[in-house]
Amino acid sequence: MEKKLIELNIESLAFEGGGFVRHDGIPIFVRNAIPGDKILANIVRQKKKFINAEIEQILLASKSRITPPCKYFGECGGCTLQNMVYPEQTFWKRKFVIDSLTHIAKLGDIEVLPTITSPLEYHYRNKMEFSFSASRWLMLSEINTDEKIIDKDFA
Predict the structure, then answer these.
(1) CB under 8 Å to 67, separation ≥6 — which residues?
(2) Inside any domain, residue 137
(3) Share above pLDDT 70 across residues of the chain, in percent, rounded to a whole number
(4) CA distance 44 to 97
(5) Pick from 32, 77, 23: nearest CA to 58
(6) Which residues pair with 57 in a beta bridge?
(7) Residue 54 is part of a domain; what is its CATH number?
(8) N or C: the chain end with fewer CB closer than 10 Å?
(9) Does a structural domain hold residue 16?
(10) What is the pLDDT of residues 8-48, one digit of tens each?
């Protein structure tokens, strides 16, 4: 299958943790991209109202981009934002809370206190989500392929 490549400047973060940009008015979601990235993206799914894409090449990395410490980053959905500096992660998570309360719950102008950060950036998580389905494999929260289970010795 021939690749459909497009150059994008990632503007914001989607709720699921991937990059988001509007191109010619169409929302594009790019897994593992972060705001500030300039990328060459491969369109993997094109629907009438949105596009899903994957990073083909990072042309210019965001100032917030770091090398993820988890060796499984990108293979499972358990460490979605590890490619972003921690203060930027907490900024976006707070923004998602504000947007959800304002736009989805329709609570109007509501005060959201600053995020209480952990002194530990890693190894403090205490939640696991398991998926069970006849059509998908089992993984921590989301698996990025339908073809394998990842044997994890560290998370």
Answers:
(1) 83
(2) no
(3) 77
(4) 29
(5) 32
(6) 40
(7) 2.40.50.140
(8) N
(9) yes
(10) 999 999 988 899 999 999 999 999 999 999 999 999 999 99
